[in-house]
Amino acid sequence: MENEAYLALFIEESKEHVQRLNNQLLLLEKNPEDLETIKEIFRSAHTLKGMAASMGFEHLTALTHALENILDALLNQALDVSQEVVDGLLTACDVLEDMISSIEEGHENPHDISGIVAMLEEIATAQPQETLRKSVNIQHADSQRGEGETLYDVRVSLSDDCALKAVRAYMIVQALEEDGYIVEANPPLEAMGGRFQEKDLSFLYRTKQKESEIKNRLNSISEIKAMVVHPHSQSDGTPKKGDKTSPTKTIRVSMERLDHLMNLFEELVIDRGRLEKIALDVEHVELQETVERMSRISSDLQDIVLTMRMVPIEQVFNRFPRMIRSLAKDLGKKVQLTIEGESTELDRTVIDELGDSLVHLLRNSMDHGIELPHIRQQQGKKEHGTISLKAYHSGNHVFIEIKDDGGGVRYDHVSKRAVERGIVTQKVADDMTEQEIAQLLFSPGFSTAEVVSDVSGRGVGLDAVKSKIESLGGAVSLVSKQGEGTHFFIQLPLTLSILSALLVVSDEQIYAIPLSSVIETAFIEHQDIRSIHHKRVMDYRGTIIPLLFLTDILSPSSLQKKIAQRSFVVILKKGASLIGVVVDFFIGQKEIVLKSLGHYLSGVFAISGATILGDGQVALVLDANSLMK
Amino acid sequence: MSENEMKIIVFLLRNEEYGVNVEQVRSIERMLPITRVPRTPAFVKGVINLRGVVTPVIDLRERFLFEKNEVTDETRIIIVSVQELEVGLVVDAANDVIDLPLREIVAPPELISGVAAKYLSGVAKWEERLLVLLNLEEVLNQEELHALHDADFSYS
């Protein structure tokens, strides 16, 4: 069936439209007067309906139709934007989302939508409708006309034998809306779904395109008998400043293909390493030059391939306003969520893995952080709590901060609980600083909520968040002040698969240490290795830091080797703490491709993966974070 | 091959013949350089570069019989794929593919050639040879790997 080919596209696009509906509805809730937002919502709902109708999903069409009725009433100002209206529309969005997911899973129309449709109809007819539409629209369209935009009259006739007029009409609307805005349509856009039978369509169309471009666009659609495009007669010649910027051209590429490209590229990086080694060995100048050139080009290519996989973190952040809103309702709290830096880009794999952890931290802030409105008032705080979510780039990392102005961590409770749970002894707990106590929250088996609530504390705690983020090569920490709020910091690598590493040798094997955790390399003389409480330490620029021997860590059962007169040390960092690691010797810096050790060996201590070196041999990649423990 | 037969890759471990279902076998490799993976049980030999894929390798002789293996020209790595796992098995030799009639397969005895029954899916007589069929799901059981792992390093 032809539809099959479009199904994936349909699902992808409908999800985007539902997401847009959600976002715009939340905007509308804040600015109920904003007609432009209502229009935006209407457009999304309308496109969704058209798509659903042409794909033959009747329930989906019926529901979006009911949604449209309300929006139409709002647009005509026959209905005011009230809390009930927004709630109703949001509920409908949830149902839409469910329906689309079940279509994705392969069962069509399993939902009983009569209830929700009836509810929507009730809302739509709550106030008498008036038909102000036409005049409102045109005025608005004119005032909204952007720079260089012109109004056109577009008339299209479909061929008489066109079987699927609804689909053609839909395609025409899509083609026009791709780079412009349909101000008015006759027959109206709402009528174009389902069993649409008209063959003459006319549009009032606002766009930056030239006549010929519009024609070209429409010419690509089959079964069109005739078309006329000319500038709208009433349009005056003074363009006004618009806020619409022309979108960059994009195409959709399936993730699978990108992954494949990435894999092929990784192979290339490995071969590049091999070639570099060969060129060096044979001492052939021309070969060396060619290889050098190739290396440069492949570094450029590497940048492109990596950025292609980068997606804005918006994809994860988008669902939070909805989540916070409904959580606030459930918990009877008043909360405002501010989001910054949603355009910050991260590798797709990281983003996919990140969502749950962020949800957890936000739920945590909602549940344990922000206090109930009356308690906040008693404490002289604003009734509305604030949670801010912020993402930004810095160096080779992306940082995400989640900050709330709630009650903060109650250190006495935390240390008491930690002792009860046997995570630390009373004696240790007494000596801990607040900062150290805060880190206890990340220990396995710790949950401070007095009552296990529905919101957070369902068995998985912050330890799950921590291990997830660490498995992504990142780190998480928190700073909290009692009574003032909690601030979570998440640090993530920009990308997971290709990284710069320092190659070292220990026990006759090569290990790679990610450069992101290396501060510097140094030598240490035997007499400079000191001992405190039977632990080896060294003096690093005036600070005493722990000193580990890589052989001891990696094969604890092997016999202690004699310490050489002069040892090679790598200084590693994790957060603010430093550590010296003694290795047999250094090889140098290298771009490596991080590969998994295979499922069978998951969770091996201190090893985060492996890489294939230029000579084909496998080197293990050390996880500097776990050496710090 | 008829429905009543199963294609089996036959390999040697200390002169005994073992078999695995050919459907679970990806390839048979000559010995490759192995990178040791620290802090894993002794039978985990390490990882190899299998045409660009890092693949774990275990030594079956050490896994079952707890004795060291000597690498010879005959030594092979059988790459098997079970559920999500892809693992290389080091064996003394692998040189036969046979069609085994299903009716020849009987349940394994408690202990055979020193290998516990739970690692076996059956034994079969074939042309006067005794063939021990491995239950790879159990051989590659990860819980056991972690248990052994913990035991090995409980003192560290």
UniProtKB/TrEMBL annotation, chain A:
Its EC number is 2.7.13.3. GO terms for cellular component: cytoplasm. The keyword DNA damage does not apply. One of its GO terms (biological process) is chemotaxis. Pfam families: CheW, H-kinase_dim, HATPase_c, Hpt, P2. Residues 498-629 form the CheW-like domain. InterPro entries: Bact_Chemotaxis_CheA, CheA-like_dim, CheA-like_homodim_sf, CheA-like_P2_sf, CheA_P2-bd, CheW-like_dom_sf, CheW-lke_dom, CheY-binding_CheA. Residues 1-103 form the HPt domain. GO terms for molecular function: ATP binding; phosphorelay sensor kinase activity. Residues 287-496 form the Histidine kinase domain. SUPFAM superfamilies: ATPase domain of HSP90 chaperone/DNA topoisomerase II/histidine kinase (SSF55874), CheW-like (SSF50341), CheY-binding domain of CheA (SSF55052), Histidine-containing phosphotransfer domain, HPT domain (SSF47226), Homodimeric domain of signal transducing histidine kinase (SSF47384). The modification Phosphohistidine is found at H46. It catalyses: ATP + protein L-histidine = ADP + protein N-phospho-L-histidine. Keywords: ATP-binding, Chemotaxis, Kinase, Nucleotide-binding, Phosphoprotein, Transferase, Two-component regulatory system. This is Chemotaxis protein CheA. The lineage of its organism: Bacteria, Bacillati, Bacillota, Bacilli, Bacillales.
TrEMBL record, chain B:
Keywords: Chemotaxis, Cytoplasm. It holds the Pfam family CheW. Residues 5-145 form the CheW-like domain. The keyword Hydrolase does not apply. Its main location: cytoplasm. Coiled coil: none annotated. It is found in: Cytoplasm. PANTHER family: CHEMOTAXIS PROTEIN CHEW, CHEMOTAXIS SENSOR HISTIDINE KINASE-RELATED. This is Chemotaxis protein CheW. It comes from Fictibacillus macauensis ZFHKF-1.
